[in-house]
Design goal:
The chain has 7 helices and 18 strands. The protein is α+β, with helices and mostly antiparallel strands. It folds into 2 domains: 27-141 and 278-287, Diaminopimelate Epimerase, Chain A, domain 1; 148-269, Diaminopimelate Epimerase, Chain A, domain 1 (Roll), CATH 3.10.310.10. It has an 18-stranded mixed sheet that branches. A hairpin with a 3-residue loop joins β10 and β11 (173-177). The relative contact order is 0.17. Mean pLDDT is 92; it is low at 6-18.
Length: 289
């Protein structure tokens, strides 16, 4: 049979793609890059934000995250009474991501998909998360993650080349307190060796020498494709209760001293941590597949 009608030809291609299980997009998908936990572009932690009408196949979301090549890309779409939110690094899906959640909320508020008086409600692998505007800041409601003391796994200290005052871990990551901010800033990890340690990620922290910050930190996670994360919201779910106990404070300000730097305000509230940050939309486009 010869096909001369262009519309029939297009329909046949789409039909074949569907039959073979290929993901088909019939509409362009808006996609953004947002610098989170900063009030100026090209600082903080960049995240991709993909606004969907419905879920994509897991493999396609992973491919988009790999193409974006950022520490995380967020995918959000309407689902029941809330929004479904998932996060992917270039290599894997993660259970919790603060900066990409902040970036997603920024896009939803700035594009009018949510009113600035509304609360963004996200259903995620870590349960229900919320975000709301407070002046120029966005406050996230995240679960608190207590850190329990434990011995360091093999190769962890060797890879970091540091002597810790404390070693502990939460559900997924290790936390090391070191003697001072200079030590945190001066770390030059051996990432090849760190990949061999049985850790997903590691926070290294100390008290801050600056009066306007309570503590500083850095975060390394080569196991999921991120040698150093510029600003890690989810890490502050553990850093906040850890430093809250040491400093006897409920409200603190953390500064992540990566090469880009970022500010995270934290507030302890029962078994939750309120994380507040600012964000800047750097560019927007559309995803065509």
């Amino acid at each position: 049979m010869e096909i001369h009608d262009e519309k029939c030809y297009t329909f046949l291609i789409v039909w074949l793609l569907v039959q073979f299980g290929c993901e088909v997009m019939t509409m362009p998908v808006p996609i953004y890059q947002v610098d989170a936990f900063t009030d100026k572009a090209f600082a903080g932690n960049p995240a991709g934000v993909c606004l969907l009408e419905k879920a994509l196949a897991d493999g396609l979301m992973q491919s988009v995250a790999m193409e974006m090549n950022l520490s995380e890309t967020a995918f959000v779409w309407p689902e029941k009474e809330a929004l479904r939110l998932r996060w992917f690094t270039p290599l894997a899906e993660v259970n919790l991501c603060g900066h990409a959640t902040l970036a997603t909320a920024k896009v939803l508020f700035e594009t009018g998909r949510l009113k600035k008086t509304e609360t963004a409600r996200f259903d995620t692998r870590s349960g229900r998360l919320e975000a709301r505007l407070k002046d120029d800041w966005i406050e996230l409601d995240f679960p608190s993650q207590r850190v329990e003391p434990c011995p360091p796994p093999a190769k962890l200290l060797e890879s970091l080349k540091a002597e810790p005052l404390f070693v502990g871990r939460n559900r997924e990551d290790y936390l090391l307190e070191v003697v001072d901010e200079e030590t945190v800033r001066g770390l030059r990890p051996d990432f090849a060796l760190l990949r061999q340690a049985t850790v997903r990620g590691v926070m290294v922290t100390s008290r801050s020498t600056a009066k306007n910050f309570d503590f500083v930190s850095r975060f390394f996670a080569p196991a999921v494709g991120i040698d150093e994360d510029p600003v890690t919201g989810s890490a502050h779910c553990a850093l906040a209760p850890y430093w809250g106990g040491k400093l006897d404070k409920k409200e603190m300000v953390g500064f992540q001293v990566s090469w880009r730097g970022g500010v995270v305000r934290v507030r302890l509230e029962n078994d939750r941590v309120k994380l507040a940050g600012q964000a800047v939309i750097v560019f927007s486009g559309q995803l065509d597949i």
